[in-house]
Amino acid sequence: MRVRTSWAPLWLQKPVLATVGLLAACAALAQTPPPPAHPAETHAATEPAAAVSPGELKAQREFKMLDFNGDGKLSRSEVKLFPRLAAAFDEADTDGDGFVSYAEVRAFAAKYRAERDRQRAAAQAAATPSAPTASPPAPEARP
């Protein structure tokens, strides 16, 4: 007899993991690559045979997994099982056509990443103690 290790319905486990992976991949996509050291690297990076990052491949794969009908875009009904994606749907749908394309997902991920980095920097700045602006008091002279 086989014992189930998870009590979540089987049909729900895979999409939830896909959603988590898609969000992680989107965050990875939003990272900006370092500038090339010399112009030869720029030319090599723009060639059609340029390698795609593992994060990009993962994001593409998970986008296709969520795109149930295979039309190359996500509809509101395709993301309704994922509250986090459904909540961000209107913000990600930049052209207002009622669908989110892969390009819109990438743009949203970049925006999300920039906002998260800004919040982290602000929190870090608030957490670090600032240097005192007043000079220390002068020592007292003894009579």
SSE diagram, text form:
Elements: H1 10-29, H2 39-46, H3 54-66, E1 73-75, H4 76-79, H5 83-92, E2 99-101, H6 102-127
Antiparallel strand pairs: 1-2
Helix pairs in contact: 1-3, 1-6
What is the CATH class of one domain? Mainly Alpha
CATH architecture of one domain: Orthogonal Bundle
What is the averaged pLDDT score? 75
Number of helices: 6
**CATH level-four homologous superfamily name of one domain:** EF-hand
Question: Rough shape?
Answer: elongated
Helix content: 55-70%
How much beta, percentage-wise? under 5%
**Total strands:** 2
Structural class: mainly alpha
Q: What distance separates the N and C termini?
A: 93 Å
**Unreliable stretches, pLDDT < 50, 5 or more residues?**
none
Radius of gyration: 24 Å
Largest sheet: 2 strands, antiparallel
Q: Element order, helices and strands?
A: HHHEHHEH
CATH fold call of one domain: Recoverin, domain 1
Strand order of the biggest β-sheet: 1-2
What do you see in this structure?
The chain is 57% helix and 4% strand. The chain is mainly alpha-helical. The chain has a domain at 10-33 and 52-124: Recoverin, domain 1 (Orthogonal Bundle). A two-stranded antiparallel ribbon has the order 1-2. Helix 1 (10-29) crosses helix 3 (54-66). The model has no long low-confidence stretch (mean pLDDT 75).
